[in-house]
Structures are given as C-alpha cells and as structure tokens.
Amino acid sequence: MKKLNIIVVYDREEENILFCLRKKEPYKGMYNLVGGKVEKAEKNITSAYRELEEETGITKKDISLKHVMTFTYPISEIELYAYVGKLKKKVSLVEEINHLCWFPIEENFWDMNRFAGEGNIAHVLEQIKIYHDQLLK
C-alpha cells in the first residue's frame, strides 16, 4: 500500500483552515489540504510534520498534530492518514510548489467542483467538529 497524509491546519482562533491550490494531478486546479507521501520506513506522524514543514514552513514548534482518521482504498492501494492541529502562534507561510490560502471554517467544503477528495475533506472536518475537544484543546 502507498501511504499518504493530509493535514488540517487551523489558525490560532480556529476561524480559518489552510489549503493549497493544486498545480498538478491529482486534483489539478482544486483546493486541497496540505500533505504528501510517507517515505519508506518513516513513521506516519513524522511524515506529516515533514510534509507540513516542506509545503508551508510550519514546524513542530508551531503546531501539535493529532491523528483523526485513516482512509483505506484497496483498489488503488492507498492508505490516507488525516491529521489535525491548531497553530500556536502566527506564522509566515512559505510556499513550496502550490499556492497556499486560508478558507473560513464556514466555507462549503462539500463543493466537489472546488475541493479535492470527493467529499473527504468535508467528512474529516465534520469528524473534527464532533471530537473537537479531544483533538484541538
């Protein structure tokens, strides 16, 4: 199985969520959560912190990540690990490849014409709402 991760990053006030605008497939031209590939012999959480820093400049000192859920796609042989965290302080974002932007939490993340993942982003965000105190407090 190929292992990937996505990371939900909330600002300090939990008013906005960080997204990237994909420049390549999959989901070219759509908004997606930041994340990437888990390297061989790398721990999933280590990979999430590494990808987050590479794509945004956000470091482990800036945020604490918690595992929310794992999606398994047997046909495409992918395991997707979802993490969440809230920034501890204001940060200056550093773009790697994709443009980074903040969306307010009231956004319609179910809009599959704009947001990647066939509704998975909205689903992850709904789970975070349900388990908010365990994940973000």
Could you characterize what this model shows?
- With 137 residues, this protein is an alpha+beta fold.
- Helices cover 21% and strands 32% of the residues.
- It is built from 3 helices and 7 strands; from the N terminus they run E-E-E-E-H-E-E-E-H-H.
- The mean pLDDT is 97.
List strands and helices in order, with pairings:
Blueprint: E1 2-10, E2 16-21, E3 31-32, E4 34-37, H1 44-56, E5 66-73, E6 78-86, E7 99-104, H2 120-130, H3 132-136
Parallel strand pairs: 1-6
Antiparallel strand pairs: 1-4, 2-3, 2-7, 5-6
Keywords:
137 residues, alpha+beta, four-stranded mixed sheet, 3 helices, 7 strands
* Helix content class: 10-25%
Shape: globular
Mean pLDDT score: 97
What is the β-strand count? 7
Largest sheet: 4 strands, mixed
Proportion of residues in β-strands: 25-35%
Structural class, by secondary structure, is alpha+beta
Unreliably modeled segments? none
Strand order of the largest sheet: 4-1-6-5
Output the radius of gyration: 14 Å
How do the helices and strands follow one another from N- to C-terminus? EEEEHEEEHH
Intertermini distance: 33 Å
Tally of helical runs: 3
